[in-house]
Amino acid sequence: MKIAIHGRNFKEETKPFVQSMFDTLAQKNIELQISESYQQFLSDVDIIHSSNSFYTDKANLFDADVVLSLGGDGTLLDAVTHVGDREIPILGINTGRLGFLAIVSPDKIQEGLAEIFAGNYSLDQRTLVSISSSLNGEPLDIFNGVNFGLNELGIMKTDSSSMIMVRAYLNGEFLNTYWADGLIIATATGSTGYNLSVGGPLVMPSSDIFVIAPMSPHNLNVRPLVVSTDVVLDFEIESRSSNCLISLDARSKVVHSNVKIRMEREKFKANIIKLSGTNFLNTLRSKLNWGFDVRN
């Protein structure tokens, strides 16, 4: 079996669990490849492992059977960009702070590995967004070819005082003009992210929808809108500062406000490993304290 590993910094108390994971992988003679950024951190904290193969991006990621993501949800979003259209299954191990996607706790790593080795897991196929953009009629590659994301597209102001104006079109038909601090267009997976913070709805991950959620809209009658993933969305932007911030999951870039953005469903999906005994409803109850009496 071939396993690729990507991660971020973890706290000292997490170190024994991570070292135990690498010990188990070595005992099982698993062929490993580790992202270079994570390898540097592992070296700094004296984690011992058997890998002498490292990768920087999806171009030199080997043909893994599984990718392990050690961190929070942001780390898993990185892993999705590493995998790209190869659709390699990804297991999220939560050594970070938040885990709607990375739901395996450090003390459950060994149980998770056992299920991986036994093939005792299913795959949640998650919809991705795909964007293309142009500036003054010329193609613009904002994110250097990695123009897809698992959570959301964000169109936001850069000036702390002025709103931006975003004209939105659905399948070529005018939808609305948003005067707001920005606009979030989230997948069902991303409904627990930025979308939730700006008042958008929670959505079951298997739903084939996008949520268009304005950020602090000037008109209070403008509410989040749920649309099918079959649609094509186009956005035109105006800003007093002549620029805006475009984000795709954890990546962002300031561009001229003359930019035009097109968003649609990506042709491929992200395969997130779902272990036995885990489900989205349990995660919601745990992370959002549903069902707990917190009145006192």
- Secondary-structure content class: alpha+beta
Question: Looking at the chains present, what oligomeric state does this protein adopt?
Answer: single chain
What is the architecture of the largest domain at the second tier of CATH? 3-Layer(aba) Sandwich
* Number of β-strand runs: 20
Q: Hey, roughly how much beta strand do the residues contain?
A: 35-45%
Family: Belongs to the NAD kinase family.
Cofactor: a divalent metal cation
EC number: 2.7.1.23
Binding site for NAD(+): 73-74, 151-152, 181, 192-197
Describe the structure.
Helices cover 19% and strands 37% of the residues. With 296 residues, the protein is of the alpha+beta class. The protein folds into 2 domains: 2-127 and 270-288, Rossmann fold (3-Layer(aba) Sandwich); 129-265, Probable inorganic polyphosphate/atp-NAD kinase, domain 2 (Tumour Suppressor Smad4), CATH 2.60.200.30. The strands form 4 sheets. Strands 7, 8, 9, 11, 12, 16 and 19 form a 7-stranded antiparallel β-sheet that branches. The longest helix has 13 residues, at 15-27. The mean pLDDT is 94.
Write a short abstract of this structure.
By secondary structure, the protein is of the alpha+beta class. It contains six helices and 20 strands.
Question: Secondary-structure map with pairings?
Answer:
Elements: E1 2-7, H1 15-27, E2 31-35, H2 36-44, E3 54-55, E4 66-71, H3 73-83, E5 90-94, H4 109-118, E6 121-126, E7 129-135, E8 138-139, E9 148-149, E10 152-156, E11 164-170, E12 173-180, E13 182-187, H5 194-197, E14 209-215, E15 225-228, E16 233-239, E17 243-248, E18 251-256, E19 259-265, E20 270-275, H6 280-288
Parallel strand pairs: 1-2, 1-4, 2-3, 4-5
Antiparallel strand pairs: 6-20, 7-8, 7-9, 7-19, 10-13, 10-17, 11-12, 11-16, 13-14, 14-15, 16-19, 17-18
